[in-house]
Design brief:
Helices cover about 40% and strands about 20% of the residues. It is built from nine helices and nine strands. The strands form two sheets. The protein has a seven-stranded mixed β-sheet with strand order 3-2-1-4-5-9-8, with helices on both faces. It has a two-stranded antiparallel sheet with strand order 6-7. Helix 3 packs across helix 4. It starts with a helix and ends with a strand.
Length: about 270
Amino acid sequence: MNALLETVRSGHYAKKQIHSRSALISWSHRGRFATGLRLARRVGGTRVLDYGCGDGTFLALLLQSESAEAEASALRPTRSAIKIAVGAEVNRSLVDDCRQRFAGQAELKFELVDDLNRPDAQGSFDTVYCMEVFEHVVEPAPILDRLHRLLAPGGALVISVPIETGLPVVVKQVVRRVAGWRGIGHYPGTTGYTAMELLRSVFAGSTQHIPRPVFANQDGSAFHDHKGFNWRVLRTLIEERFELIQQTTSPFAGLGPQLGTQRWFIARKT
């Protein structure tokens, strides 16, 4: 295994996601990253941003995938390779950890989200990824506006969020409960549903169907857990700001949101 993938394995989120002790959780997250990499090959971009990069897993896998693809197609013309990949996080400790772990990767940079407010960052990215972030955001509209500003004209936005409606929410609650009993991950901290809340979530439409609990970080900032997240509400907000060009589902696109675990949106800045 190359050094980059070894570094990925040491990541805080990678340990409880793609390397989870639960085979089902690991399989689901591996499918999510595989979908992200497949979409990345479609949208391309030489300057990319992962907004809410966590432990840097996706960017590292993306660069590793690009390297492998370049080697495999050395005798054929290929699209422009990534020149700079930036990961952004709100937590300084996450940024510092990524900088330390990926210190040997010159094309990988990590910054605080607030650092992206500088003038030279506006319109500077061909592609922005934002995966498994918006379900935790209390006010998503300003974040979407920020991502719009960061994208170059015609740039692509790739978003993934968990499906917490329909049949998937029932399956996920069962998996989380079992994982909690086994002491795996952070699932014991996921807010439970009453019977009526779960029923409303199964039959949720395009508007917010149940109240969402709000929690406070140590710095006072507010966030949601997964309870009550409705991907259709986010889709409406995306369509108000971008041209939505594709929707898909992971781990299998053919399952659709009725049976999938994550919903993906590819949008473009017009």
